[in-house]
Amino acid sequence: MATIKDVAEIAGVTVTTVSRVLNNRGYISDSTREKVNAAMKELNYQPNELARSLFRKKSNIIGLIVPDVAHPFFAKLTSYIEAYAYAAGYKVLLCNSYQDATKEKDYVEMLKGNQVDGIIMGSHTLETSDYLTPTLPIVAIDRDFSNNIPFITSDNYAGGLIATNLLLDKGCKKLAHISGPLELSTPANKRYEAFMNTVLERKAQYVVEQAKLDVYESYKKLARKIFHKHPDIDGVFASSDMIAAAMMQVSQELGKEVPRDIKVIGYDDVEVASLMAIPLTTIKQPIDEMAQLAIKLLLDQMEGKKVTVENVLPVKLIERKST
Prior knowledge:
Strand order of the largest sheet: 2-1-3-4-5-11
Mean pLDDT: 88
CATH superfamily of the largest domain: Response regulator
Number of domains: 3
Shape: elongated
Keywords: DNA-binding, Repressor, Transcription, Transcription regulation
Radius of gyration: 25 Å
Structural class: alpha/beta
Number of helices: 12
GO molecular function, one term: transcription cis-regulatory region binding
Order of helices and strands: HHHHEHEHEEEHEHEHEHEHEHEE
Domain HTH lacI-type: 2-56
CATH class of the largest domain: Alpha Beta
CATH architecture of the largest domain: 3-Layer(aba) Sandwich
Distance between the termini: 63 Å
Strand content: 15-25%
Protein name: LacI family transcriptional regulator
CATH topology of the largest domain: Rossmann fold
């Protein structure tokens, strides 16, 4: 394997000159730069990226921690983050925490140890954020760590109001809300708060169940449990499109026709929502804008700029045939 010394020897220059070419530092004539590049090509020399990052004190790598990239919301978010990061000259190191708090902490320490330039936290399993001190730029998605780490979320309360009022305005008498895990105390819990405030104000019957980020079959199992205990439910507000899809499938298995017998609204507006046999009404999160803002907030922190801690983006009702 070729070394930087081999490149210097072939190019007829010093190792320091090769290093300057690699790191684009100091004055280098065009002819010298061409000789070094030709030597690297001849030797098929691959620069040691870790050594270069230590020299520059910059890795041009961003760490991204998500619960599960297979989940449609996080798949879409990851895709946008990677695109915006790459456009800004950065690559993304992806970590799946799978809702394991120990694994999540290990990933944070690993990313810090590998000198990434910033971390985007999309995972929601931390019981404490004591070790997530902002010693490097950090941005959280849908999680307020309450220690001056900027976070990005959609207007979950407005989304909850829109969804719940839509079901009641459509004539639903008994609603089910399937929330995320409320003990995590994330901004997404405001969907639940909006639901509760609305059904209590409008004196509607309701049921609330919690669902963790899980596989589709688990959502279907939860749906069967809900319909078994409450067969008279005629409106469902699910905290994600995947949960909403499971509720629709199970309701149809039980002979309930959507939207005649039961109306369903989801949250996120991932691709599956529009591709279902009965297209799903949903609250659209601006996933593209969330990803773009996450990269911007990281870059601003890297440049020493002051950033806003709480960043709330608007949501939008996408009404389709399920309501």
